[in-house]
Design a protein that fits this description.
Elements: H1 2-10, E1 16-21, E2 24-31, H2 40-53, E3 57-72, E4 80-93
Antiparallel strand pairs: 1-2, 2-4, 3-4
Length: about 100
Amino acid sequence: MLIVALALSGCGAGPKLIRETETGGVVSYPFGENGYMISPFRKEAMQIIQEKCGKSYKIVREGETRGQERMNTPVPGADEVIRQRRWGIEFECKKT
């Protein structure tokens, strides 16, 4: 089980700006069994928002978004699907 948890935490990319508009966007990041709030990637996701908006933004909504799946074959004939869960944050930059 620990191997699967390590594989999940290491697979895929960290935070990404998956949709960008003139006034905001959506950032997503991977999270594991411990939850999205304590994911080490949440801080990086918030930094992406601050790079876009500065310190003046509001979070419109948050929720689980489409993750990634990949096949892992540690031993021939022992295929397993590894699923990576991702959390999305939709945000708007406030006008100053």
